[in-house]
């Protein structure tokens, strides 16, 4: 038997994996980043082949992995996780930092950054698994890092508590984006509404 529920018990983090080639910078959200050896330190990362980032890693032989912290906004996660680098320059108009290899990573909400040279690559049908030797590692902030479980709790938390009045989930009303979980808190959803997080149109929203 193959009980798909059992896969939800695997633990992950949340990362922005980035690469650059011939002046093109891109990054995407990845949960599958792990250290695989210590001496020398190597990490493995699986990236969907449909992501522009996978193509940039293949061409350049380099990538970096930024560990996101719990204070990362849904806008940041949405930008790197729900929008395509084919349509959007991910690093335009947001704070960003560049590693020693000239690859960007987010300028905020990053706990640590690992820059890697690819030493091996495995074709996994839908994904490419890259193994990289780490040539730069930096502890960027002391903020707690985001686990994949925390991300899902936040996502399912629908609306973050507001400073003035916290609304219990059952009191929430409005429209929820089925793609990213964003809540539009209004009884009405304009026909031309675009999700501010993942940029999907009104047809992707469901009434709460
Ligand atoms: Fe959305």
List keywords for this structure.
single chain
Characterise the protein shown here.
The structure is a single chain. This protein has 208 residues and is mainly β. It is 12% helix and 37% strand. The strands form 3 sheets. A 7-stranded antiparallel sheet has the order 2-1-5-8-9-4-3. Strands 11-10-12 form a 3-stranded antiparallel sheet, with no helix packed on it. Strands 6-7 form a two-stranded antiparallel sheet. Strand 10 and strand 11 form a beta hairpin. The radius of gyration is 18 Å and the shape is globular. The two termini are 35 Å apart. Bound molecules: fe (iii) ion. The site of fe (iii) ion has 8 residues, from loops.
Mean pLDDT: 88
Task: Summarize the amount of helix as a percent range.
Answer: 10-25%
| N to C succession of SSEs | EEEEHEHEEEEHEEE
Placed side by side, the strands forming the largest sheet appear as 2-1-5-8-9-4-3
Uncertain stretches: 157-168
Q: So how many helices?
A: 3
Bound molecules: fe (iii) ion
Oligomer: single chain
Structural class by helix and strand composition: mainly beta
In short:
The chain has helices spanning about 50-60, 75-80, 150-155; strands at about 15-20, 25-30, 35-40, 40-50, 60-70, 95-100, 105, 110-125, 125-140, 175, 185, 205. Mean pLDDT is about 90; it is low at about 155-170. It is mainly beta and about 210 residues long.
């Amino acid at each position: 038997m193959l009980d798909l529920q059992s896969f939800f018990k695997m633990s992950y983090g949340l990362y922005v994996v980035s690469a650059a080639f011939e002046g093109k910078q891109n990054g995407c959200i990845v949960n599958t980043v792990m250290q695989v050896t210590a001496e020398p330190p190597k990490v493995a990362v699986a990236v969907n082949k449909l992501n522009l980032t996978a193509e940039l890693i293949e061409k350049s032989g380099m990538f970096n992995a930024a560990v996101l912290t719990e204070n990362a906004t849904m806008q940041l996660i949405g930008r790197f996780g729900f929008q395509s680098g084919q349509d959007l320059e991910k690093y335009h108009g947001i704070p960003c930092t560049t590693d020693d290899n000239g690859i960007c990573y987010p300028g905020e909400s990053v706990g640590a950054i690992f820059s890697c040279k690819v030493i091996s690559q495995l074709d996994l049908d839908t994904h490419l698994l890259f193994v990289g030797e780490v040539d730069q590692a930096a502890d960027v902030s002391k903020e707690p890092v985001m686990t994949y479980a925390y991300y899902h709790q936040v996502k399912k938390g629908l609306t973050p508590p507001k400073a003035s009045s916290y609304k219990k989930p059952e009191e929430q009303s409005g429209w929820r984006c089925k793609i990213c979980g964003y809540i539009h808190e209004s009884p009405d959803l304009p026909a031309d509404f675009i999700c501010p997080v993942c940029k999907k149109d009104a047809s992707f929203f469901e009434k709460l």
